[in-house]
Amino acid sequence: MLPALKILIIEDSTALLEQLTDSIQNTIALFDRPDIDISIVEAASVEKALQVVHCDGDIQAVVFSWDTDVKQCEIDADNPGKQRVENNAIVIEAIKAIRPELPVYVLGDAIKGLDIVNQSNGMESFFYRNDIISDPESILGYIINDFDDRNETPFWTAYKEYVLEANDSWHTPGHSGGASFRNSPYISDFYRFFGRNVFVSDLSVSVDSLGSLSDGTHAIGRAQAALANTFEVKQSYFVTNGSSTSNKIILQTLLREGDKVIADRNCHKSVHYGIVQARAMPVYLDSVFNPDYGIFSPPRLSQLRELIESNPDAKLIVLTGCTYDGLLTDLQQVVSLGHAHGMKVFIDEAWFAYSLFHPYFRHYSAINSGADYITHSAHKVVSAFSQASFIHVNDPDFDKDFFKEVYSIHTSTSPKYQLIASLDVCRQQLEMEGYKILNELLSNVAEFKEQVSRFSKIRILESADFKKIFPHFSEDNIGHDPLKILIDVSELSYSNQEIHRFLMDEVGLEIEKFTHSTILVLLTLGGMRSKIVRLYNALKKLDQGKASLTKSKSRPSLPAIIPPISLEMLPSSAFFGEREAVPWQESQGCIAAGLVTPYPPGIPLIIPGQRIEEDHINYMRSLSNQKLTIQGLYDGELYVVKQRP
Predict the structure, then answer these.
(1) Is the Cβ–Cβ distance between 543 and 372 less than 8 Å?
(2) Residue 84 and residue 322: Cα distance in Å, rounded?
(3) Which of 53, 83, 267, 622 is most exposed, with minimal Cβ within 10 Å?
(4) What single-letter DSSP state applies at residue 504?
(5) Range(s) of the domain holding residue 616
(6) Is 175 helix (H, G, I), strand (E, B) or coil?
(7) Environment class of 193 (CB within 10 Å of its CB; exposed 0-12, middle 13-18, buried 19+)
């Protein structure tokens, strides 16, 4: 299968459209590009053109004849990227509203060329129409060159070429291209399992031409520049030890000892640990938790406003842009609030790395909303290896030098080059076909939900359900990512453990997350339609009672209220001070020295510096019989600040 370069030509004159199409089509063979499939798509009206851009993700270039008549039109009302078009200048904006990465080339009268450039925003280049008809090589050369630039993988290409040279290895790693595995009677099976390329491509940082990750040089630097261009930010960085590390890098860059930071309590534990490492003082937004489904929502914007007003000296706001279950904060409101009070905004968007690449999601994108710092787990829902992460920076006051020092503290001097390469090709895919894949996934999930709606017991939770269980859902304009499918199984007469066993053992489906009443299914860029069909088949068996499972009459419940956080001291003072272990049942009145987090729901119950109260003890007691994991408990004990005699 070859990469497709479809060129959309917009011209309402049938004669001119035919001339343009024939001229460009007849010139394609002159460029001798057997590596790409170049083709032409025609649109005799702006309305049709916008529909094509919306529906056909293989369109990689648009040629727009400026004299095309624009008769106030708009694309289908069901299209979330719909745009009302009133003049020629807005045509380009309408195209970019659907796919910002799509280059648009304008054809027009050369005499009016400067005026056209002044009227329009976002065009790639301008060409005199008559020149294109007589000499189409000029525009086709531009289009192919721009396609190649967008499709470039600076690190992956250089890395692959170096590996294929098969140079002798006189440097680390010690297995020397797999020789120590390959020639061993004991561990050669390890080599055979993974294959030759894994070992010969495991290189040392001694390969100078590929560049340094910590310094961002050579091929790595060029790949990071391409990443920033794709994500429309000032700076982007590769991280090879997960977004947990990305979060800590940002927090330690921005915060100093005692600095206040307004943070979502529901943030990933790496945020809490990053605040501890920075020796900062967190001011936490309360959890909004629904015990019936075991899920939490984004924090209330009304409380965020209150905390901003009462803590005007806070340096930073830290929020999760998309919850595990797909609930989306209206970040445009958050960024406006923060910036109006001189606060930077950092968004952990680990579960929403594709947010910028489809108009359905773009309103809730952290980058589109103007956040200063964004982290993406490139391995969670897009196409990179585990531990691969992006950091994006849009802060006009970015202290790059200090950031690089903190980055070096956390970054290995021997990074895994396969991880870096996966980040490079992940960017390439989002740039070239992110929109297309997301469009197909949205269509597939809509069909899947329509079919599941006919079930009698199993149902998929939608925005209407979230509005009922979270009172601030509508008020705060909270959204929902439909690719995170939260399935309500509370009406089934089986325990969640039995459902999990059926899906895994009998059907071979590994589900992302369970609560006592829901299962969460993630549709990622690898979410093939056949997987959706298999999931539907399994759910249908469960709904119809055709699964051979042990029935359960009751389900466990979760406490409705998570006690609020009130700090007695800086979390870092408690965490790094003298500590001792005490049984959790006897910890009331002590000051916690570590993080205590029950799963589910994954919300920190206790953080360092917090005095443990009776409510915390009762909360843990209510969970103790439910076979839940509580991180921060060690053999029934937790760590507290040591009491002086």
Answers:
(1) no
(2) 29
(3) 622
(4) I
(5) 571-641
(6) coil
(7) exposed
Q: Domain total for the chain?
A: 4
Asked which of 397, 430, 463 is the last residue of a domain, the reply is: 430
- List the structure tokens of 139: 């525009």
Task: Find the range with the poorest average confidence among 163-172, 246-255, 386-395, 564-573.
Answer: 163-172
Domain holding 386: CATH number?
Answer: 3.40.640.10
The pLDDT tens digits of the residues spanning 194-217 come to 999 999 899 877 688 898 898 889
Q: How far is CA 132 from CA 105, 127, 141, 445, in A?
A: 11, 7, 11, 42
CB 155 within 8 Å of CB 421: yes
Token match 């967190």: residue?
A: 282
Give residues with Cβ within 8 angstroms of 126, minimum separation 6.
105, 106, 107, 108, 113, 116, 117
Q: How far apart are CA 101 and CA 24, in angstroms?
A: 22
Please report, for residues 27, 39, 140, 257, 545, the alpha-carbon distance to residue 33 in angstroms, rounded to integers and kept in the order given.
12, 12, 12, 58, 56
Tell me the backbone φ, ψ of residue 627, rounded to 5 degrees: 55, 40
Length of the chain, please? 645
330 lies in the same domain as 397: yes
Could you tell me the maximum CA-CA distance found in the chain, to the nearest angstrom? 95
Interval 445-501: pLDDT, tens = 999 999 999 999 999 999 999 999 999 999 999 999 999 999 999 999 888 788 888
Please, what is the end-to-end C-alpha distance for the chain in angstroms? Answer: 73
- Write out the two tokens for 218: 């050579």
| Same domain as 405, residue 269 | yes
444 and 398 co-located in one domain: no
Give the residues across from 235 on adjacent strands. Answer: 393
